[in-house]
Amino acid sequence: MAWIALFFAGLLEIVWAFAMKQSHGFTRLVPSLITLIAMIASFGLLSLAMRSLPLGTAYMIWTGIGALGAFAVGVAFLGEAISPARLAAAALILSGLVMMKLASPS
User: Which has the closest alpha carbon to 10: 49, 42, 54, 55?
Assistant: First the structure.
C-alpha cells in the first residue's frame, strides 16, 4: 500500500508543478487552487507512505517521479528543449530510482 501511495504522491507532484507554472506566480486563481490542492494531497500521500518506507527511499522516489514527470510534461506540453544532455540526466534520475527501489527493504 505504501508504494501505491508514494506513486500517486509523485503523480500529484507533477500536477502541482505544472499547475504552478500555469498560475504565473499565483496570479491566476484556478491554477493556483489546483497547485495548493495537489500539494496538500501529495504531501498527505507521501506522509502515509513514510509510515512504512524509509525516509530516504520515500523522498527520493517522490522527488524522482516529480522530476521526471515535470521534465516530460515540460517537453510534451510546454515546448521545452530536449537535448542529449537533458535525456541523459533524466536517464540517470530514472536509474537512481530503480536502484533505490531494488535496494529498499520494504
Answer: 42
- For 26-62, letters b (16+ CB in 10 Å) and e give eeeeebbebbeebbebbeebbebbbeebeeebbbbbb
Global pTM reads 0.88
pLDDT mean across residues, the chain? 95
Range of the domain at 63: 2-103
Check residue 20 and report its DSSP letter.
H
When divided into structural domains, the chain yields a total of 1
Residue with cell string 502515509: 48
